[in-house]
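This section describes the prediction task in plain terms. A model, or a person checking by hand, is given the sequence of a single protein chain and must write out its three-dimensional structure as a string of tokens. No templates, partner chains or ligands are provided. The sample shown here is typical of the held-out split.
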Amino acid sequence: MAKNDLLRIVLSGEQCVPDQRGTLPGRGAYVHPALVCLDLAVRRRAFPRAFKVQGPLDSAELRRTVEARTATAAR
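The expected answer:
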């Protein structure tokens, strides 16, 4: 899978936010833009590991973005 097929995620405070254009500063993590893959990454605590932080991170905005992207692709 090509890198441009994946969704880049960056850390903003204690929240994971999508980086649609790939231009936000900081360490990035990549995930396949599908709810199944996002849920798996959250369950496995992949984002705190990727960003080298302790504790759970808020991924609500990230989930909304993936849901919107999935709904648009289904049309």
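For orientation: The first strand starts at residue 7 and ends at 12.
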